[in-house]
Amino acid sequence: MNTSLWSEGAPARLLASCHRASGEIVFPPVSAHSPLADQYEGLLLEGEGTLYSFTVIHPGSKSGQQPFALGYLDLLGPARLFGRVNGTRRPAIGDVCRVVPDATYGYAFELAEDAQ
Amino acid sequence: MKQMHVMGGAMTRFGKHVGVKAPELAQQAILAAVADAGLVLKDIQAIYCANVLGGMILGQVILRDLGLAGIPVYNIENACASGATAVHLAKHALLAEQYDTVLVFGIEQLTALGGGTIPMQRNDEKTDLYAAAGMVLPAVYAMRATRFLHERGAQPADLAAVAVKNRFHGSLNEYAQQRNAVTLEEVLASRMIADPLTLLQCCPSQVDGAAALVLGKRSGPHAKDVRVLGSIVVSGLAEGPRDDILDAEITARAARLAYEQAGVEPSDVDVVELHDAFTIAELLYYEALGLAAPGEAVALLHSGATKVGGRVPVNPSGGLLAKGHPLGATGVAQMVELMWQLQGRAGARQANAPRIGVAQCTGGGIAGVDHAASSVHVLGV
Question: What's this model's pTM, rounded to 2 decimal places?
Fold first, then answer.
């Protein structure tokens, strides 16, 4: 897992950057090596958002992979993230998802099963 | 704007040309285009080679044995818009009177990749994160399709109807990779790739092909002189957190500029070759190109206006869905098709007697950007 994406402490939150002048939020955070770095300050993203759109990818049978969902998640801030959507059912636009650490992808979106 | 003329053009059949090397494939299109322009190779003063995945100095490799005496060769990569970008750059040189006659060709050999979707670039942390999570172009378009169905009250069959139309057109085109007309039921029943897009709603991933145009400051030998009236390339804007993914902003921006440069309105357009890599794309681009009012794309499709024989046929070649999408060749091939259409040389798929044609390429997904590049060309007779 890319631990540099996450804040320390509990609950961990995704790190981002906020443009000092415009307030625009950038994820992942602007690199300290960037010549623009001094125009940004650190920010923690919200831990929950709303699914803006999604798809379920159906890999070919030769791949051996199971179908998986991908989506755009809108967070307060505002910010929009792309990532894997995990859950036991098919996602729907408007679903509430939590942003959770993921060992493979750094982060993922977890369907909040009580939300519809 | 001074005039740039399409003096001649040609393309190979798009399909699996397994075992055929890049020079052999591209030279077929190059030599046929030069002959179509009524010229010989020594008349060409500079060459633009569009390609995405073929590696360094592909143009020189392809041209090495043609005896071109060291004329300038420019290799151009701009994702799916590479071929159109090459035409655009050739226009700059011609109008600056750097050259009188140039050749633009595009080539791609996707069978060499062994199938599957085109890999996304991983040049920074964001592209790396998104690509690792599964960002591929079918996913990008499928998320647009999901949102389209949600917002517009459209049905999966509305998406599938694009494939039925374009694959019928492809059945009429001897240059198309997939020449089978299909029914709505067959499209919907084909294997799901990226929900809601089924296999027959995606352009084939294993395709090779080349296309070439001779462009010049004077007309070619054909009775109908095709001129490039508008030529625009733009790049994407960084995505905002509340962007509308149905907006196709980059394409709408390129189209507005191209129409303005050409001095035409969308209602003047008689035939269109657009970037239907996936069915949803054609519906979004109807609106971005001004062929349909916002929210009216599905109605335009079902009206029959965009079918060969209709008011403004879209993708009479079969489009990327049926003809195939060898990336670097696509933009050039679109304009070869428009040249044939405008000159009445398109055979069974001829779209009435068009006078204004539009070619549109938008491609290259980058994490955090709508698309990398969009190009719109307006051709006329």
Answer: 0.96
Nearest-Cα residue of chain B relative to residue A72: B143
At residue A2, the pLDDT reads 54
For the domain made up of A3-111, the CATH class stated in words is mainly beta
B279 in a domain, yes or no?
yes
Contact criterion met (CB below 8 Å) for B283 and B298: yes
Is residue B139 within 8 angstroms of chain A, CB to CB? Answer: yes
Residue of B360, B332, B366 lying closest to B83 (CA atoms): B332
CB-based contact (8 Å) between B128 and chain A?
no
Question: In this predicted structure, what is the pLDDT of residue B154?
Answer: 97
Q: Which of residues 34-73 of A touch B (CB under 8 A)?
A: 52-58, 60, 68, 70-72
User: Cα–Cα distance between A65 and A37 in angstroms, integer?
Assistant: 39
Q: d(Cα B269, Cα B272) in Å, to the nearest integer?
A: 7
Residues of chain A with pLDDT > 70, as a percent, come to 95
CA distance B143 to chain A (A): 5
Could you list the residue range(s) of the whole structural domain that residue B257 is in? 125-202+224-380
Q: Which residue has the higher pLDDT, B168 or A65?
A: B168
Residues B150, A25: C-beta atoms closer than 8 Å: no
Query: pLDDT tens-digit profile of B339-351?
Result: 999 999 999 999 9
B245 touches chain A (CB under 8 A): yes
Query: Does residue B214 lie within any of the structural domains?
Result: no
